[in-house]
Amino acid sequence: MARRLRLDEAADLFLDHLKVERGLARLTIDAYGRDLARFTAFLVQRGREDVDDVKPADVTDFLIGLAEEGLAPRSRARTLVAVRGLCKHLVGERWLDADPSELIDAPRTARRLPGVLGEEAIVKLIAAPPDTPRGRRDAAMIELAYATGLRVSELVTLPIADVNLNAGFVRVTGKGNKTRLVPLGGQAQARIAKYIAEDRPACVKDPKQRALFLTDRGGPMTRQGFWKALRSHARKAGIRLPSGDVSPHKLRHSFATHLIEHDADLRAVQAMLGHADISTTQVYTHVGQARMIEQARKHPRAR
């Protein structure tokens, strides 16, 4: 008799597959793990123990339960992606003959336009940090984030060796350990060069430290540290968005939106952002259109 695969074993095997064979980022794998833990707990409560026990109705009832708990459609859709990934993997590895999630539609999600700072607000934000070593570091980070559209995880882990100021680009290792080159504008080059020459040396405690941006203690900046600093500088400058506080991700949105508004090629923006799929980048064309409509409504004959 063939060995049956328990649900918890199946989830662990799938997460190992995501890590080892697909090379997904740690945060992505953690998110998959949380969603699958919720799914397997639901199945165990139903008396399901092995993957062979799972029926299409179980997946449907699980999603209905999430909706009844008030989980947003976007979060339910993300959970279904994890469940589908698990089931598809089990079919591919011949633990399942049929995919119990195959015929289930994803919950409809509203297309949310990301929060975007105006170009004048960006100038104010970069000028907001004080003229101190820490302030100049923060300004260099804000400048670099806006100039390149780096994810915050990419920004805080960026090695100093991957910043080529002479050639004007940064080498970025993003999701799935994929590497891309992103051009660096003149203002960002100048601000980073000044930080490297005048402020970073005083923070270096370990000569082997590779990170570009360092804390006063000599360690790399953290995502939380940069987020808090950015929020503080934005508030002091009086900059807020209808969607809430300024965040590193909104700098990334602003980078992409401003490029599109200045007629940048969508494929080029996709490459700089490190998007695997062009459809992910296309949201910024909608942002650009929304801003154009907003401006058009200010026309004296528009009312």
What does this molecule look like?
Strand 1 (163-164) and strand 2 (169-173) form a beta hairpin. The mean pLDDT is 86. The relative contact order is 0.10. This protein has 14 helices and 3 strands. The chain folds into 2 domains: 7-92, Orthogonal Bundle (DNA polymerase, domain 1), CATH 1.10.150; 119-296, hpI Integrase, Chain A (Orthogonal Bundle), CATH 1.10.443. Helices cover 55% and strands 4% of the residues. The radius of gyration is 23 Å and the shape is elongated. Strands 1-2-3 form a 3-stranded antiparallel β-sheet. The chain is mainly alpha-helical and 303 residues long.
Defining key terms:
mainly alpha; 303 residues; 3-stranded antiparallel beta sheet; 2 domains; elongated; hpI Integrase, Chain A; DNA polymerase, domain 1
What is the fold's blueprint, element by element?
Elements: H1 7-20, H2 26-45, H3 56-68, H4 73-92, H5 119-127, H6 133-148, H7 152-156, E1 163-164, E2 169-173, E3 179-183, H8 186-198, H9 200-203, H10 223-236, H11 248-261, H12 266-273, H13 278-281, H14 283-296
Antiparallel strand pairs: 1-2, 2-3
